[in-house]
Amino acid sequence: QLQLVESGGGLVQPGGSLRLSCTVTGDYYAVAWFRQVPGEEREGVTCIGSRGVRNYYADSVKGRFTISRDNAKNTVYLHMDSLKPEDTAVYYCAAHRLLRVCSLRQGLFDSWGQGTQVTVSL
């Protein structure tokens, strides 16, 4: 099983930006970001395949969030711009050892980070 550590969460004002990082220990390919608000189901935000192309974004974040990866650093980034209060959630990254293409099917992933809180508020 892989080990994942997220960082970069925090408090930001509406319209601001944050960059989340997900550092992975072990060999991995596809990575996805999910988020969850207390009392609600976890939702897929974005994912990236092994080659960093054909990424997918949920409609709610399209045009505002960008996922990228630095394989030399074993790190995947989620750059979030134009943040809105409704982006407030705990953000989780998940990685897959064999899957090479982008996917937001949560059941495929067996390696998850501990989560990082993002709060968008005045």
Class from helix and strand fractions: mainly beta
Strand content: over 45%
What form results from the Cα inertia axes? globular
Q: Rg, please?
A: 13 Å
Helices and strands, in order, run as EEEEEEEEEEE
State the helix count.
Answer: 0
Task: Describe the protein in words.
- The termini are far apart.
- 0% of the residues lie in helices and 46% in strands.
- Strand 5 and strand 6 form a beta hairpin.
- Strands 2, 4, 5, 6, 9, 10 and 11 form a 7-stranded mixed sheet that branches. The protein has a 4-stranded antiparallel sheet with strand order 1-3-8-7, with no helix packed on it.
- The model has no long low-confidence stretch (mean pLDDT 95).
- The chain is globular.
- The protein is mainly beta.
What would a concise description of this structure say?
Helix content is 0%, strand content 46%. It is built from no helices and eleven strands. The mean pLDDT is 95.
Task: List the defining traits of the structure above.
122 residues, mainly beta, four-stranded antiparallel β-sheet, 11 strands, 0% helix, 46% strand
Topology:
Layout: E1 3-7, E2 10-12, E3 18-25, E4 31-36, E5 43-48, E6 56-57, E7 65-70, E8 75-80, E9 89-95, E10 111-112, E11 116-120
Parallel strand pairs: 2-11
Antiparallel strand pairs: 1-3, 3-8, 4-5, 4-9, 5-6, 7-8, 9-10, 9-11
